[in-house]
Write a structure and sequence with these properties.
The protein is an all-alpha fold and 232 residues long. The chain has 2 domains: 121 residues, Leucine-rich Repeat Variant, CATH 1.25.10.10; 90 residues, no CATH class. It has 14 helices and no strands. α5 runs antiparallel to α6 and α6 packs parallel to α8.
Length: 232
């Protein structure tokens, strides 16, 4: 638990810090809303600390919002330090908050280790943050890095990765085309599904996966010459 610095303590700050740690999630939500509505730099450590341990999704999101209300020079250094936390939730929430702040000065902090984090939720959040923060000249390299994660995880993880690649746009096409010929069928299928989503984002992930499986089963040439069954 991070206590308030004695030199910055006040009755209001102490009350908010205590409320952010209350047993009742509604009380924690109200406290996060209060500090976001009236930003106080002295509460940055408490906000970040709570992000890393808060069990309620809505409270965590409000804590992140409160951090976006602070000046970047106050919030960014503290969030950067949190990226090295041993707690997966702390790393994920710091990445999420950086994406919400949207300051591209944080781009160098989205490291390869973050993009490949062993924890799926941290990796998914890193992919989203990277797409938000990446400079124009780094987009192709980011696409190459993300394509290296194709085939990872369950449906939700794969959907997150496909969305990140689709959000990068045309720069992802060459890397996806290479991955579509990968000897690992899970990688090739995921690459083809993502290619289909890139061409038609409205088609839906499950439909794209089904079509990618059909292409894998028939081969690209036969699939192109064979119409889909009615109702597909």
């Amino acid at each position: 638990m991070v206590p308030l610095n004695p030199t910055t303590r006040s009755p209001r700050r102490d009350a908010i810090a205590n409320a952010l740690r209350a047993d009742d999630s509604s009380a924690r939500l109200r406290a996060a809303l209060a500090v976001g509505s009236d930003p106080d730099p002295a509460l940055v450590d408490v906000l970040v600390e709570r992000c890393g341990v808060e069990p309620d999704f809505f409270v965590r999101d409000m804590l992140s919002w409160a951090l976006t209300r602070l000046a970047p020079e106050v919030s960014l250094p503290r969030l950067r330090a949190e990226l090295g936390s041993d707690r997966a939730r702390a790393r994920a929430q710091a990445l999420h908050t950086l994406s919400k702040i949207g300051d591209r000065a944080a781009w160098p902090w989205i490291t390869r280790d973050a993009l490949r984090d062993a924890d799926d939720e941290v990796a998914r959040t890193a992919w989203r943050a990277a797409v938000v923060l990446v400079p124009e000249g780094e987009r192709t390299a980011l696409a190459d890095e993300l394509v290296g994660q194709l085939g990872r995880g369950d449906r939700e993880v794969r959907l997150s990765l496909s969305r990140a690649l689709v959000d990068l746009g045309d720069v992802a096409e060459p890397a996806l085309a290479r991955a579509a010929t990968d000897p690992d069928p899970a990688v090739a299928e995921h690459a083809r599904a993502t290619e289909l989503l890139l061409r038609d984002p409205e088609s839906g992930f499950d439909a794209a996966v089904a079509e990618a499986r059909r292409i894998s089963a028939l081969g690209p040439r036969r699939a192109a010459a064979t119409p889909e069954p009615p109702g597909c």
